[in-house]
Amino acid sequence: MRALLADLLRWKLTEPSPEPMNKRLYRLIRESILDGQLAAGVRLPASRDLANEMNIARNTVIHVYAQLLAEGYVHSRPGSGTYVMDAIPERLLDAGRRTRHRAPDAAAQGLSRRGASIVENAAASPFQWGAFMPGVPDVSAFPHQKFGRIMRGLWRAPPPELLTYGHGGGLPALREALAQHLSVARSVDCEADQIVITEGTQQAIDLATRLLSDVGDVAWVEDPGYWGARSVLKSNGMDVHPVAVDEEGMCPPDMQAADAPPRPTFIFMTPSHQYPLGSIMSLARRRQWLALARAWNCWIVEDDYDSEFRYSGHPIASLQGLEPDARVIYVGTFSKTMYPGLRLGYLVLPKALVPAFQAGHAELYREGHLLTHGAVATFIEEGHYVAHIRRMRMLYERRRAMLVKLIERRLGEGWLHRDGIDAGLHLVLDLPQTMDDREVERVVRERGVLTRALSRYYAVPERAQKGLVLGYACVPENGMAASFEIIVQALREALDAGA
Ligand SMILES: Cc1ncc(COP(=O)(O)O)c(C=O)c1O
Fold first, then answer.
1. Is a pLDDT exceeding 80 seen at residue 10?
2. pLDDT digits (tens, 9 = 90+) for 407-460
3. DSSP assigned state of 341
4. Worst-scoring range by mean pLDDT, 84-88, 376-380, 469-473?
5. How far apart are CA 290 and CA 309, in angstroms?
6. Whose CA is nearest to atom 3 of ligand 1?
7. How far apart are CA 209 and CA 237, in angstroms?
8. Do residues 339 and 192 make contact, with C-beta atoms less than 8 angstroms apart?
9. 0.85 exceeded by pTM
10. 297 in the Ramachandran plot: left (φ > 0), alpha (ψ -120 to 50) or beta?
11. Domains of the chain with bracketed CATH
12. Separation of 63 CA from ligand 1 center, angstroms?
């Protein structure tokens, strides 16, 4: 380990820097601990040895170790040495991540203004598995055996065409299978050649933004809304305007008002299950938006991320299929119906746009994963996809019912945000407006429970409602009550502190 640490430090110290050696050494060891390069429990080399190997004064090392000790990064055992703390508090981990994401570092790294803005506003969580992570399906319930059998079959003698670059919007067999599925399950009006397969929704939005907008063009997004879409639109130079939502979905703004937003090129929305509040867009509102898009000659980007999971009544039909030739670009994903790590999504495009999107996709990202496309196509054709969705719908419905019961029993009915609880993979717990929902998110995360503060989803701070977005799909029933109790306890503490 001694040699490893010395190597690591020597390697990191090769770049010239005006920073004094003691500060630099302190920073590098601290960052290595936060990054996990120096794992919990690892013994640091004796100060004399490290000083010799690094060719620096021993006092420098002693002072750096003392500073790390005082700040809780390491502990010392008398006569035995200095060790990395077993459990670095989450706060420290967060602080480390925050400093890596902050502007001064970004500027020091020479990032562009765009790069710095992406990093500074990054909202993707480093934690993606565990109670109550929003947006994550139960990946352990996926029929891996069946999918693996199909994959193994293809791997035995993979046709060279599936191993080289793709060109044309994805494997035709998958586009064919998907077109049939979407027209039945989501009332999407499409043929296979209108589909372009992407590496998830993010890439689909990125492609549409690059091909259909120029820097400075206007996009409207829901507020609250999906931070991932906002990031992509902004990073492509779009002028993003947040638009309020109500119980009927995204509200068309009053264009005569003094503060009316400029007319958009894109209107990004989640009409079947507003993310994250859950409202389902009314038919009247849908028609209104479709008429506006036609009148303004702009595009509605319909993000249909979790609509396969509806637990009562009829499935909500897509906006795209409501009118022929609607000015809608439909975006879907396999992240919720299969698993997010698959990184597969798709665009359904008006026919006239397809050749441009095929060319743009191949040009910007060099298409691939055709073998996986083939496996997913067979998975759909053999009926496993629909069967899996059906099984997951029943599983998630049970989990949702259990979480609703826990909320009502342990907190009371007023805490449950009722819009959209009949669908999706998450629900919203309403908190008093006086409560700091980000602080509650932080406290429960330190105790091992993942949530997202509702206020994080708002772009306009004055609109921000306080709450917690709770994903239930990936929470097994036998552990749910215990995890929820951690939230109850944190809420009690927050209420007591505010009383
Ligand atoms: C609103 C919304 N759209 C889309 C996605 C899925 O994105 P992707 O297909 O890139 O995994 C998510 C994931 O959480 C989401 O919340």
1. no
2. 999 999 899 998 888 999 999 999 999 999 999 999 999 999 999 999 999 999
3. G
4. 84-88
5. 25
6. 305
7. 9
8. no
9. no
10. left
11. 2-88 (1.10.10.10), 143-385 (3.40.640.10), 387-498 (3.90.1150.10)
12. 47
